[in-house]
Design goal:
By secondary structure, the protein is mostly helical. It has 2 domains: 4-73, Winged helix-like DNA-binding domain superfamily/Winged helix DNA-binding domain (Arc Repressor Mutant, subunit A, Orthogonal Bundle), CATH 1.10.10; 79-144, Diphtheria Toxin Repressor, domain 2, CATH 1.10.60. It is 69% helix and 3% strand. It is built from 7 helices and 2 strands. The protein has a two-stranded antiparallel sheet. Helix 1 (9-25) crosses helix 4. The longest helix is centred in the middle third of the chain and has 23 residues, at 69-91. The radius of gyration is 18 Å and the shape is elongated. It starts with 8 loop residues before the first helix and ends with a helix.
Amino acid sequence: MCDLRELTRAMEEYLEIIYALENVHGEASVTAIAESKGVRAPSVTHVLKRLSDSELILYEPYKAVHLTEKGRKIAARLDRTHKILRWFFTLIGVTPDVADADACEFEHIATSETIEKLTQFVEWVKSTEDPKWLERFREFQKGTDN
């Protein structure tokens, strides 16, 4: 079994790629994973074997790759964290491309406590009927932008 602390950033990125491919195509091929990652197919197999040994994916050479239930839970958490971070970064005025890139970096290093609190904040912001604080923040930003 896999201890979540044993997951490397690369392993998490592969789980996210497989998750996205499964959601679109119902499965993930080694070729599609390699294309998404921007590497050659032989480079993918080493990580897939580690993920398989950790019981996070079902992998056999020359067959489609699928997430296990445990792998899907981890990938879904990473995907949700990425979306929350990207939304928050865009809210505070970061451009969409930079927000996406930064979310990709932060999702692998942020603690579960930080993500939980940020999620609560994002949900509160989305539910609030008084956006005046955001308007004041945007005005403040205009005065401090160089």
